[in-house]
Design a protein that fits this description.
The complex is a heterodimer. Chain A is an alpha+beta fold. Helices cover 57% and strands 12% of the residues of chain A. Chain A has 2 domains: 5-152, no CATH class; 157-289. Chain B is built from 1 helix and 4 strands, in the order ββαββ. The chains are: A alpha+beta, B alpha+beta.
């Protein structure tokens, strides 16, 4: 045991706990399995180790040790690739796919969480060595709180007003409000669609939101989350029963058509509202205009 | 191999509307038209789209 042993253990513990806090299994059902969780906790532990070791290394004037952090960066990029590959492969077998944009968003989150773990461990160990264990504990709690805050992105309910709308047929065209969804020719299939189908209108609150929800990946994310939360009335080889989201070209509203197993409009509205706004879908045309003046 | 976004078959009760060029099924009644379309929809994993009362096409998306 030397003067660094306790601070290092403290930093390691703080980093690993913060990774555990950020590892949530929720309605998106990912990661679901124990093995998937173990992989992420183990990598989080390694990240915590790297962040912790950096501080004593600097104090001992071993400046080359900092290059270890570059190894960490390439390791965590590998985590992102791993998540992307796994989810893309699995996506082929989903009844309602996640879509590439959603998958990329999840993969980015997994990578960045490891950097947040490094940050937590680094600050914690540093404050332990500079001050004492109590300051370190406070720093650890604040870092964990900050990590959670940084990981919680925007929600769709901040961007749009959501309204339930019964789908209807005009001839063989299926409509949600005035938004054309698709053409279904067989009367039998039309009856099925009207019986099980639900329609929702997403009305953008501003011009920026209009561009964001127009993104096909964002729309697919809504369909996926909705189908995960409420179930889906379809099987492979029934393309007439596929959930769809189409856009009103005039005002940018989105018409969502889904066939959930559990028909509860209020719950569906809550689920749509809780869909994350995907980082890769966010557009801010107003920002440009503001800067140009 | 799957062929998508193509008309895989056409079913009609009015042979004047479509004669050849692909799998065309000429039916005698609306009931026959619908049963053919429902079967073809299941077989081809496609959707039966109605162009008019008497003409349906099967497309896989």
């Amino acid at each position: 045991m030397n003067e660094y042993t306790l601070p290092i253990f403290f930093g390691l513990a703080a980093g690993t706990i913060s990774r555990l806090i950020m590892l949530r299994t929720d309605y998106r059902q990912y990661p679901t399995y124990l093995h998937g969780k173990i992989i992420h906790v183990a990598i989080g532990f390694i990240a915590a180790g790297l962040g912790t070791i950096a501080v004593p290394a600097i104090l001992e004037e071993e400046f080359t040790a900092i290059t270890f952090l570059t190894v960490a960066a390439s390791q965590f990029r590998e985590v992102r690739n791993m998540e992307r590959d796994t989810l893309t492969e699995l996506d082929h077998y989903e009844l309602v796919t996640r879509g590439k944009t959603y998958i990329e968003g999840i993969a980015i989150a997994f990578e960045s969480r490891n950097y947040l773990v490094i940050m937590t461990s680094l600050f914690t160990t540093f404050s332990y060595l500079m001050f004492n264990v109590w300051v370190a504990a406070i720093v650890a709690i604040v870092s964990m709180f900050l990590s959670r805050l940084m990981m919680a992105g925007g929600k769709l309910k901040d961007l749009v007003d959501i309204e339930y709308m019964e789908p209807r047929f005009e001839g063989s065209g299926l409509y949600v409000d005035n938004i054309y969804i698709m053409n279904i020719g067989l009367p039998e299939r039309q009856k099925e669609v009207l019986k099980y189908g639900m329609g929702f209108i997403l009305k953008p609150k501003n011009f920026d939101a209009r561009s964001t929800i127009a993104n096909l990946g964002q729309r697919q994310a809504v369909l996926h989350d909705l189908s995960t939360a409420l179930g889906v009335y379809r099987d492979s080889g029934t393309p007439a029963l596929v959930p769809l989201a189409k856009r009103d070209l005039d005002d940018g509203r989105i018409g969502i058509f889904v066939l959930p197993q559990h028909r509860d409009a209020q719950r569906a509205i809550r689920v749509i509202g809780a869909v994350p706004t995907l980082e890769n879908a966010i557009r801010m045309p107003m920002e440009r205009r503001r800067k140009e003046g | 191999m799957t062929i998508e976004k193509c008309i895989l078959a056409a079913i009609t009760t009015n042979p004047k509307k479509i004669t050849s060029g692909m799998a065309v099924f000429h039916c005698d009644s609306k009931a026959e038209l619908e049963s053919y379309a429902a079967n073809l929809e299941a077989i081809l994993d496609g959707i039966a789209h109605a162009l008019s009362e008497e003409l349906l096409i099967i497309v896989r998306h």
